[in-house]
Model the fold of this input.
Amino acid sequence: MPNNGQHNPVVHAPTVVIRHRREKGHKCSILPLRGRADFVFHVHPVRQPLDLTDYVRLGVRGTLLSDDDANRGLLVLDASWHRVQVLERAHGDVPVRSLPPWRTAYPRVSKIRQDPPTGLATIEAVFAAMVILGRDPTGILDDYVWRDRFLALNRDYLA
Done:
């Protein structure tokens, strides 16, 4: 059956995104992915129980995400760096996987807090994870303002 340019059907568990309720929608890089069949969005605190069996959670203190995780679901916590600890505590039972040092294109301007030097915007982290897991990243960065810069900064990972 021809694809007709449409997104491929999901062949793995959907990526679950949990956003902190106080995150500003206009600053959120991941929201344009709402409505895709391969993404499920929730707001923290999540009211219904989630089955995250066989999922891994993107984070900064875990073993590196690898193609060994390709058959696992992906949990993404979307919050500013100073709020993400609340979400991590709520989902601490999901094994953590880190990303190699991809470079962010997201301009950081906080005068109050310092972000981790290897910290990525959520959409950047999701894209990197899709590449590492061998999943089709088509469309992930379509609405990301800094897409071209991000891809240029990380071209070595895309070769």
User: Anything to note?
Assistant: Residues 15-110+117-158 form one domain.
